[in-house]
């Protein structure tokens, strides 16, 4: 483990039809920077998760995602309209591209 990282001993806990990792009944009893030793008081599916801290909120990434998605949807809409209005260019290839554009837009 590097500085600021913490190993968590966990198991997969099913709640109805959904599941999540839980630390209940599991503790880390030993280890060093390259190995961890866990002890749990039950049988299940186990793992060691490494928590590296809080995930930062990347404002720039969210902006680029929203702008990119908006531009993509506008371009796909224009492509669909173009394919539908240009019947003189109609062919199997154009029909396939129209269907692909509709699927991507949806």
UniProtKB/TrEMBL annotation:
PANTHER family: ADHESION G PROTEIN-COUPLED RECEPTOR E1-LIKE-RELATED, ADHESION G-PROTEIN COUPLED RECEPTOR. Signal peptide: none annotated. Gene3D superfamilies: 2.60.220.50, Rhodopsin 7-helix transmembrane proteins. This is AGRE1 protein. The chain crosses the membrane at residues 63-86. It comes from Pluvianellus socialis (Magellanic plover). Keywords: Disulfide bond, Glycoprotein, Membrane, Transmembrane, Transmembrane helix. Pfam families: 7tm_2, GPS. SMART domains: GPS. The keyword Transcription does not apply. Its main location: membrane. Residues 1-56 form the GAIN-B domain. It is a multi-pass membrane protein. GO terms for molecular function: G protein-coupled receptor activity. One of its GO terms (cellular component) is plasma membrane. It is found in: Membrane. One of its GO terms (biological process) is adenylate cyclase-activating G protein-coupled receptor signaling pathway.
